[in-house]
TrEMBL record:
It comes from Methanooceanicella nereidis. InterPro entries: DUF1867, Pyrv_Knase_C, Pyrv_Knase_C_sf. SUPFAM superfamilies: PK C-terminal domain-like. This is Pyruvate kinase C-terminal domain-containing protein. It holds the Pfam family PK_C.
Length: 195
């Protein structure tokens, strides 16, 4: 039997960013986890995490929105944050979203929801938006070769900005999605509504 503490935030959102990162650092140190994947569309949360994980021995990988997510041909990343990440040796990954990608194009054009988008919606509804983000960025980091698929990692995600969810995950590639496992929830919001 393993007993672990899970922290539940009263509300979702970026108000929980600093606590989420601190809890993730604590768990990484306890478990000796060497890879941390952080969702950060602008790069700001990624910089906060990179600073917090300095000296822990964990490698931080920041995953942003794919270029064109909000507007065709445009990156949501802010240059000042991406430059700071690079100066710290932290990769900033932008690639096709694992739980939407081409599937979203089909559903937008033809209607309905794809099977892949249904997985994303189920994770959002059943667990939390942040948990869906943690799963997705873990796949994206694995597909980019930034994290091993045979080791546990920590993933940090959020609900509409910042961070409010952290999980220990055994990642997998997109083509082996069902080999991915959420092993632990470190923290997440109880009230998942958007304010």
């Amino acid at each position: 039997m393993i007993k672990m503490e899970i922290v539940y935030f009263e509300k979702a959102g970026d108000r929980n960013t600093d606590d989420t990162i601190a809890l993730a650092v604590k768990r990484a140190k306890e478990a000796g986890i060497k890879y941390v994947v952080v969702a950060s569309s602008s790069g700001e949360t990624g910089v906060k995490a990179a600073k917090a994980f300095e000296g822990t021995g964990a490698k931080v990988i920041v995953v942003g929105h794919a270029v064109g997510f909000s507007k065709p041909g445009v990156s949501d990343a802010e240059e000042k944050y991406v430059n700071e990440l690079r100066s710290r040796g932290v990769p900033y990954v932008q690639q096709t979203h694992a739980l939407s990608g081409v599937e979203r194009s089909i559903s937008r054009k033809l209607g309905g929801a794809s099977r892949v988008e249904s997985i994303a919606d189920a994770l959002r509804s059943v667990v939390s938006v942040g948990a869906k983000v943690c799963v997705e960025i873990s796949i994206m980091a694995a597909d980019g070769g930034y994290v091993p698929v045979d080791d546990e990692i920590i993933a940090i995600g959020g609900t509409w900005g910042g961070a409010d969810t952290a999980c220990v995950i055994k990642p997998a590639h997109a083509n082996n999605f069902f080999d991915l496992h959420i092993l632990e929830i470190i923290c997440m919001p109880r009230d998942k509504s958007r304010e």
